[in-house]
Amino acid sequence: MLKIAYRKEYAHPLPENHRFPMIKYELLPEQLIYEGTVTESSFFSPNLLSEEDILAVHTNEYWQKLKNLTLSRKEERRTGFPLSAALIERERIINQGTIDAANFALEYGVAMNIAGGTHHAFTDRGEGFCLLNDIAIAAQYLLKNAKVSKILVVDLDVHQGNGTAEIFRDNPDVFTFSMHGKGNYPMHKERSDLDIEMEDKTDDKTYLTVLRENLPKLIDDEQPDFIFFQSGVDVLATDKLGRLGMTINGCKERDKIVFEHCHLNEIPVVASMGGGYSEKIAHIIEAHANTYRLAQDIYF
What we know:
Helix 8 (about 160-165) links the parallel strand 4 (about 150-155) and strand 5. The chain has a single domain (about 5-300), classed as Histone deacetylase domain (Arginase, Chain A), CATH 3.40.800.20. It is globular, with a radius of gyration of 17 Å. It is an alpha/beta fold. An 8-stranded parallel β-sheet has the order 2-1-3-8-7-4-5-6, sandwiched between helices. It contains 11 helices and 8 strands. The longest helix has 24 residues, at about 85-110. Helix content is about 45%, strand content about 10%. The protein starts with a strand and ends with a helix. Keywords: Hydrolase. It holds the Pfam family Hist_deacetyl. GO terms for molecular function: histone deacetylase activity; hydrolase activity. One of its GO terms (biological process) is epigenetic regulation of gene expression. Belongs to the histone deacetylase family.
């Protein structure tokens, strides 16, 4: 059974002017159940992430600022969210969801988090709607508990996974691969283990060719025993923040490539949702839903 982390707090407690496109966190589970891709039994409710797991990745100074709501106005603006205790609770729930999904992936081969993909969170700061880095926290959890020995991060959000790159810069047990828009946020890029920059208006054929050329080679070279997939759909041509030129079908094929290679090589994979900011919510939901449909079809 496909296991998916979700709680109603994923869409709350954001103020009204931040609700779109965050409403996708409510609509996506409803769509997946309505169409019969999954049932309610597929969803599980994560609890609060422990401080121990937070501090395995983030600095104590930064965590205390989050915990005590003492970020400076500049630091708060950088995150893109108004700081609140409820927001910090939301972040802890989402991050625990990725850890729980990782454990389910070890059992079933694949698992998902309706939220997450918070790849702009650094060891000591948050950026770009990311406060705690769920991929990094879950990866560190797996390594610390000797559940895996080598992790590959496949970050296909349109924005570089700069926080993840910084966190694992000197860690040979985690290979960070980010395929992102060259001219997009963040303007100052960190150095991942492999960065591939795509030009504005990159179409399906060009993007998918590059992915097909690189992902199998990375798996062969690095021999990971676990993969974290940041499956942002802001690569779409309709995305307000994306600047690439991909279609919904092209984005679906991207996800299919990732899941099929994980399945073929028997590498457990967790997919975190990542970004998606198209003008029409229907485009966002359809593109994200394809990720879950493919996981269900390929694995179950």
